[in-house]
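Hey, resending since the last one bounced:
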Amino acid sequence: MVSSAAITIVMTPSRMITDQQIQINLEAIIPNEFNGWKIDFSEASLMVNPEVTGTINKIYNQTLSRTYINDKGERVMLSIAYGRDQSTDLQVHRPEVCYLASGFNIGEMTKTFVDTTIGRIPVMHLVAKQGDRNEAITYWIRVGDSLTGGWFEQKSASFRYFLIGKVPDGLLFRISTISNDEQDSYRIQQAFLKDILQSIRSDDRHWLVGGVTQS
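The C-alpha cells again:
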C-alpha cells in the first residue's frame, strides 16, 4: 500500500506547461474584422451557448463568443474556450455532450480535415437539432501541442503529458452555422477558417492549433 501510494504521488502531474508560457488573451488575438468578415451585432447574431455559466467558470480560464457576418450575409458563430488545467475533472468539454445535455438531438459525427494556408486541421463535424434550429458544427480541441478529433484522441493526448509529470492546457475552437443546408454550412465554415487563421499573427496561432505545421 505504501509503495502504491508513493507511485501515485510520483506519477501525479504537478507542472503546468503554461507556467513557462506567456498567458493567452483571446480578445487580443482574435480580430474583429478580417478579409470581409466582421462582428455581427444584430439580434439575429445572438448565440445559444449549451454550457451553463457555472460549468464555464469552473473549467475555463477564458472564453470568447462572437458571431461574424460577411458581405454575402453569411453568418458563422465562433466560440473559443481555454483552460490551463487539463486534468481529468477539468478537461475541455466536447460540444456534442453539452448540446445533448441542453436538449439538442445530435446527428452523425464525422472526423475530417480542413485544408488551410497554415496546414491541415483535423476537425469534427456534427449537426445539432432542436425544434426548427438546425446547427452544423465544426470543432477541434487542442491539448498541449496536439489537435484532437475525438474522445479517445483527447484522452490519449492528456495521458502522454501525464506520463512525463506535466499538466497540459487545452482549448476548444468551435464554429457553427444555422441552416438546413448542412453542406453549404460546412463550405462557409471552411472559408471562414481559412480567413481567420490566416489573419491571426503567426506568434499567436499556436494557442489555437498547437503544433500544426504553419507557414
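The two ends are 52 Å apart (CA to CA).

Sorry for the duplicate.
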